[in-house]
Amino acid sequence: MYIATAGDGHTASAASATSLPSSPASAIPPRPAQHWWRDAVIYQVYVRSFLDSTGDGIGDLAGVRTGLPYLRKLGVDGIWLSPFYPSPQHDHGYDVADYRNVDPVYGDLAEFDLLVADAHRLGLKVLLDIVPNHCSSDHPWFRAALEDVPGGPSRALFHFADGRGDNGELPPNNWRAMFGGPAWSRIKEADGTDGQWYLHMFTPEQPDLNWRNPAVPADFDKVLRFWLDRGVDGFRIDVAAGLYKHPELPDSPDPTADERTRDSVNPLAWNQPEVHQVWRDWRALCEEYTARDGNDRLLVGEVSVRTPSEQAAYVRPDELHQAFFFHLLTARWDVDVFRKVISEALTDIAATGSTVTWVLNNHDQVRTVTRYASGPHGEGGGVGPARARAAALLMLALPGAAYVYQGEELGLPEVVDLPDEVLTDPIFHRTGSRQHIRDGCRVPLPWSGHASPFGFTQGTDAARPWLPQPEWFAEHATDRALTDTRSFWHLYREGLHLRRSLPQLGEGALRWLDTPPQVLAFVRGDGLVCAVNFGTEPVPAPVPGSPLLASGDCPAGTLPGSTAAWWMHAADPGTDLR
Ligand code: GLC
Questions:
Q1: Is residue 199 within 8 Å of 91, Cβ to Cβ?
Q2: How many angstroms is it from 77 CA to the middle of ligand 1?
């Protein structure tokens, strides 16, 4: 963390600069049980890559348990666990074969219960990833559907249809799958003949469930209760704008929509009006649990729709509590783009009564350090880390909730040169393209030491991590980050702790300040000012004196390029800011 003191440009701790308590983890005030999610910061644990306790080279639930004190120290409010259910892992758990169990590679239900108990003891919420749009082709329902006859009750749990063409040899419609190829695969009937086709909007191993069949919502009701009864605090909902398809399954107006890009969306496969009733039902179910003990259960949706106003429909007061705001995550490093998406979010999402759920990184996207390294024309060079640090302070100063993806707090860059033979992302295997592949942000975390496995996996017989870690991961290992006060880790920790202790941060209003071009600045509450310089040249700081916290060296009175800072401003910030 870099913090400037008055005048001299040297670093000091936030405590000495502001007389704030240093907020040791044990002193963090507990959050109110109700509405805790409105400004919570949740840490996304990609279980497979977090910490391996068994030496098989794959992270597991016991590893997550071991890491909980680390997360508590960082200062997050809870964790979201990526899917750990039994799965053939064609899409690393987003192909669920049993929604009510733990894959043996990750542990078992007893280990899960211990994890929840430990997390709660440490004051951390636990969110699970629930995947309702599709299951695995290994799920007993799909196996039964393959055995069933056309039109039979097991087929009706999915989207089976006869093919077109003289012999049914063409898919029932022109829809494309998100991960490449047609969204339909043809099966062999029990007698060995070519048979019907089934719909899969992702891979063929992820058949889409038919939510118009009442047995599907009924079973998910049981699944949610199963985990809520085990004490979880809510769910991250995969593909929450999916689930319902146009009832007639007609051709898409754009025959290339959805293929390898979400820019062109098939309007008949996503965002159908019927899906909102599912979220109303799930919200009512959560409220039922809240009524028992006053503790909110959270539903946060992965809602990939075109505009913030479309997204707002998903977070109406009786639907999802929150939806990830991906327009910030996809924004390029440009002051006008950032200002526009933040303003739209605050207008459209906050107007629903929900809070905006900011996110800069996740398991599907190139990490910020790498993403911000070059502009649209290749400019930018080595500024990726500085910009990623600035973006982190910006995100933590915005009103609402935020999600931090594991490794983000270490400033991990994307691993861009994984050899083809280790790549596991179905996008690579189904398209043959390295574009948009997701393995590079999923490489197992470095915890300690100077060589792979960097403490990720233990024991002399330990298998290699499931994806190879580059040598340069040593620079980012947790043990180093914890001792280096200029590390990303300290910046995140200090930002998170200030966020907890300053009433101006978290929920509440934001007021933009007039700034020079390239600078974005706003005031929170009665005088917390956040400014980000998107340019490369220093500008006068909007507030005199030293910042509370800055993402880079920040001498008093100046805001250098690719830097963000927070100041407390005692006077009415409307009257005398530069
Ligand atoms: C979501 C997940 C992604 C997964 C896909 C299919 O977008 O974030 O990882 O591959 O859904 O379930």
A1: no
A2: 24
